Each structure stands twice: as C-alpha cells, then as structure tokens.
C-alpha cells in the first residue's frame, strides 16, 4: 500500500514538472504577453504569470456584432457579443504542445474540426448577395440545382431564401438612414423597422443602390418556406458565369403574408405571424426580438437629442459573425514594493509577493488568441485565528476586574 502511494506522489510531481515545461503553441505565449501588457506592467515590476494551463481552458461559440456609425462626420465603433450558452473542453490545435501532441500529455477532448456558423436566417429581396468560398454550396429552389460556382446571387422583389452554414454576414456598401427615429412602443423596435422599410423602398424605386451583403462560407441557399410544410419555388436566371438571379412567381403580397418558416429547429427565431412586422431584409427576425430592442435602445442613447430631430446618420460598417471563444484562468504574481500594503496588520508577517487570480475571455482568430476581457476572480477568504492574549493586550488574569452577574433565584 505504501509503495502504491509513493508511486502516485512521484507520478503527480513528475507530471506537474512536465506540464510546466511543455512548449505550447505560440498563440498561448502571445496571449500571456498581451495580458501582461494590458495590465500596464513593465519588466521592473517582475510580474510572473502562473497557473496558465491551456488544458484547463473551456471553449464556447457566440455571435459577435460590429457596427460603425457615422454621426455628424464622427465615426463611432460598436462591438457587441452574445452570451456564450455552453462551455466545453475542446481539443483545439492552439491548446496542443508544439512537440508533445502525440505524447499523451494532452488529454483527449471533443473534436473541433468545423468552424462555428450562424443560425439559419431568411433574406428577402430586392438585394444582392456576394458569396465567398462557396465551392461546395447547395442551391435548392426547392430542388437542388447545379448552378456551378456561385459568386453573386441577385434576389428579385418577392424572392426569399434561407441561408444555412454562414460564418459571417457583412454590409458591402454604407447605408444612409433618415431621422427622426421612432420610439420603441408595445415591445417592438419601431425605429429599426421604419429604417428598414425606408431602405427597402429606396431599393424598390432605385433611388439608391440596391442593398449588397457579403456572406462567408454558406453551405446552402434554399427557397424560403411559405409555411411549415411547403416551400415557394424560385425561378433561376443565369446572367453570367457565377451570377444568377432568383425571382418568385408569387406576388409580393403573397410573399409578405408568410406566417412562419421551418428552419429544422436550428434557428433561434422564426418568422412572426402576419400581424407582426419583420425586419427587412432579415425576414426571420420580428420587431419584438430582444436583440433588436437592445440595438434600438443603444441607437437612441448614442443619437441623444438628434434622434427626435430631422437629419440623417450613416451605417458605415456592419458585420455579424460566429466566433470561437476561450475561457481560461491564471494567476498574476507581483513583488510587493515598500509602502504598497498600507493598513496591513502589524502582527502579521508582510508577504513578499501578492498573487491575484484572473479569468481571461479570448477570441480564437485563426492561429491567434486575442484577449477580449480579463476578469478578477474573487478568491476564497481566509479566516485568521487570533490568540485571546492578543485581543486583551496580553493582560494577566490576576489583574482583570472581577465581574459579578446579578443573582438568579433559580440557582442553588
């Protein structure tokens, strides 16, 4: 029994020593350097990052929103991130040691070969879609159509398609929006719905250039269903190699009267009932969507008094993308300088170093890990046991004043 216990202790010590010397991927080392620089430390501070074990990192997927608004010739960037719904241990290449991948030191985890994608969404014309790296994309109208390698798809008025497998959607050309902006009422983002209808009307009347979106990595584009069981067939017209136009034989009124759409349980939202308004060109979002309500409140706060006055603002950039995020804990150890621990109890020995626990949220961008947020972790509060003589000032009991409690008639 003693020999087994001794072997276990030796193995744990050996494993911990090897783990501290594993030459992890350069992305992990760069992440540590970025955190140190973000804290504003210099080499004189002698800060040491410890406990940074990529094997304990958790991975999750989320949706990132980036917007650039131009208001009064001033560009204001915004970056929003949805909460990660689930964290898992995933075997990403950046977590593996450069020369220890197959030694067994890295635990086996779930595979992460596929990049994160956006939930399926519905787009309605008139608009144009520029497709990026879509060599294996399926086109269904509703049956599969061999249209070759598509680089550009034009959606005519009344045509609606469901896009699946997209990694990001971005705006190719800036959009100008008029003011004033309507207020949110009855739980609906009326202001954003009004702006969307303005852009749609301008696209119909050719008063401005047609809305143009760039989609990265779609796996399929299919005719949007008109109800939960059937799909609306679309007509395909080849305009040039890699360029097609999709149109619907139905009238626009018939297209807009769709009550719902079946996205095979993959999308978080569906088309709202016909009595509700949807946000064009994203027909799969209705005016009561929580994200739209949050965007409208943010827009009102940024515009301020301008939201109620006549004028305009420009949407310069808009990107919605699915991202992979990493959550990992570490410790920052810093030497204590003279005078930094003011108010420290005199009876306690002052430590030479101070250790603080942190948790970093970082985005995986190819071969890089970019820190997004560093949060201090509340440590476990240690209880101090103090001897009674320290509390009483080390006074002898013979010198303590006698205290006589009041008599109790029930005591003998």
From TrEMBL:
Q: Name one GO biological process term.
A: pollen wall assembly
This protein's GO CC annotations: endoplasmic reticulum
Signal sequence span per UniProt? Answer: 1-19
Note the InterPro entries from the entry.
TUNICAMYCIN_INDUCED_1 (IPR053283)
- Determine if Signal is one of this entry's keywords: yes
Keywords attached to this Swiss-Prot or TrEMBL record, sorted alphabetically, are: Signal
Q: Which PANTHER family match?
A: PROTEIN TUNICAMYCIN INDUCED 1, TUNICAMYCIN INDUCED PROTEIN
- Protein name (record): Tunicamycin induced 1
Native source organism of the sequence: Sphenostylis stenocarpa
């Amino acid at each position: 029994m003693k020999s087994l216990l001794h072997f276990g202790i030796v193995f744990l010590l050996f494993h911990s020593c090897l783990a501290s010397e594993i030459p992890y991927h350069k992305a992990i080392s760069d992440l540590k350097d970025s955190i140190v620089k973000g804290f504003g430390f210099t080499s004189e501070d002698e800060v040491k990052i410890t406990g940074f074990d990529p094997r304990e990192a958790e991975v999750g997927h989320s949706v990132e929103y980036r917007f650039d608004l131009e208001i009064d010739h001033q560009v204001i960037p915004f970056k929003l991130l949805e909460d990660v719904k689930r964290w898992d241990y995933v075997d990403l290449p950046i977590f593996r040691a450069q020369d220890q991948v197959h030694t067994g030191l890295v635990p086996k985890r779930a595979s992460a070969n596929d990049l994160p994608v956006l939930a399926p969404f519905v787009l309605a014309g008139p608009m144009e879609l520029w497709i990026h790296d879509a060599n294996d994309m399926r086109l269904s109208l509703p049956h599969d159509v061999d249209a070759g390698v598509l680089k550009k798809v034009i959606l005519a008025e009344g045509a609606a398609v469901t896009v699946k497998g997209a990694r990001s959607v971005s705006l190719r050309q800036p959009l100008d929006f008029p003011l004033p902006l309507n207020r949110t009422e009855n739980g609906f983002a009326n202001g954003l719905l009004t702006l969307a209808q303005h852009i749609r009307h301008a696209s119909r009347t050719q008063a401005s250039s047609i809305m143009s979106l760039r989609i990265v990595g779609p796996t399929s584009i299919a005719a949007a269903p008109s109800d939960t069981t059937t799909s609306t067939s679309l007509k395909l017209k080849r305009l040039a190699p890699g360029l097609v136009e999709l149109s619907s034989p139905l009238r626009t009124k018939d297209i807009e009267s769709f009550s719902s759409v079946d996205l095979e349980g993959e999308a978080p939202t569906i088309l709202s009932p016909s009595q509700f308004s949807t946000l064009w060109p994203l027909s799969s979002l209705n005016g009561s969507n929580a994200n739209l309500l949050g965007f409208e409140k943010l827009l009102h706060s940024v515009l301020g008094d301008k939201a109620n006055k006549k004028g305009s603002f420009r949407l310069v950039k808009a990107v919605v993308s699915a991202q992979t995020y990493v959550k990992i804990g570490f410790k920052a150890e810093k030497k204590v300088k003279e005078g930094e621990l003011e108010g420290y109890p005199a009876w306690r020995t002052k430590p030479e170093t101070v250790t603080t626990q942190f948790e970093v949220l970082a985005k995986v961008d190819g071969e890089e890990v970019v820190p997004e947020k560093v949060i201090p972790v509340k440590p476990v509060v240690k209880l101090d046991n103090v001897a009674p003589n320290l509390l009483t000032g080390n006074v002898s009991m013979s010198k303590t004043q006698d205290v006589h409690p009041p008599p109790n008639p029930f005591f003998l």
